[in-house]
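Hi, here's the filled form for the chain we discussed.

Project: internal
Contact: R.S.
Residues: 80
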Amino acid sequence: MKELRAERLQVMLSLEELAALDDFRFKHRMPTRAAAVRELLKLGLAGIGTDAAAGVKSSDYGVFNRGPEGHTQMEDADGK
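And the returned structure, exactly as it came back:
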């Protein structure tokens, strides 16, 4: 029996995140990006995540730990 999917979820991804999603999709022979996203959600929800602290923004969550301007969390103020 097919599951009803009545809700749409829009997610903005960087080119790097999209490439990682497509790599996952093709490596696991998934038919669509949506199927790959659902599988990654299933895997993530089954794992242990982190709890958000007060004041955390959506832009603080990224696949490659990049902030809204594209810098990584490992870079210092000089961009190194």
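Let me know if anything looks off before we file it.
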